[in-house]
Amino acid sequence: MVEYELTLVTKATVSNEDLEKFIEEITKIITDGKGDVINIENWGKKQLAYEIEKQRSGVYTLFTFKSEPSILKAINKKLKISDQVLRYLTVKK
Question: What is 22-68 written as a DSSP string?
Fold first, then answer.
């Protein structure tokens, strides 16, 4: 298994309940694919360097997890179709 970091920026207008539900969905994708979630850090609401989709701020969340590379396709698909996500970046540690 490979260790990854996923930095996720969601819209600041998303409620805490919806954000927690979305984080649970991402966690479920990882665990269903036999991966391990090491840590989830909520960095909170921060101002963006530039406007994205007419948003001036976003909520940052950092996932640290171990999984097989094939799981990344499912995660990326979920992140691409979500209306809540402004940007995301997954890097191999």
Answer: HHHHHHHHHHHTT-EEEEEEEEEEEEEEEEETTEEEEEEEEEEEEE-
